[in-house]
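Researcher: Go.
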Amino acid sequence: MSLIQTPEQLADAIRNDPERVAACLGRIYRFGGQVPNCTVLNHSLSVYDRINADPEASNGARLWALLHDCHEILTGDVVRPYVNARLRMDQQEIDAVIVERLPLLVPQPESMEWERVMAADRSAGAWEVAEIERGGVFYGVPFAVALWADLVRELIGG
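Model: Structure:
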């Protein structure tokens, strides 16, 4: 197995080996690794649940909800105050390759569907912060890797 080191390799892995991508997301803890019960994988599933509950959401929005933080496989999770313009640009470039490789499947940046996913992302993040501050235990998603991979496969049509 070779490392995923480029956006193109990441996009190919999403399409061809979603379990590997999900496993990677499951090893990245949010908030700079401070919260072991809160992985990028669990967060992505939470964003998906919020989008999936919206009857007007497209399958593209559902797919992007699952993929929206995949760039963190290459960049890591950085605590918000330390996310700078360069990191945002790099993440947007990675996202652009994913969108380009799955052009008819995910919404285009700045579209209404894209913004719907970003709103769900902010909502999930706010809930996570509130849970952390409350001292709550959260994200007991059994079989999260298989669930994420199955959903991606279904939405890609594979």
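Model: The mean pLDDT is 92.
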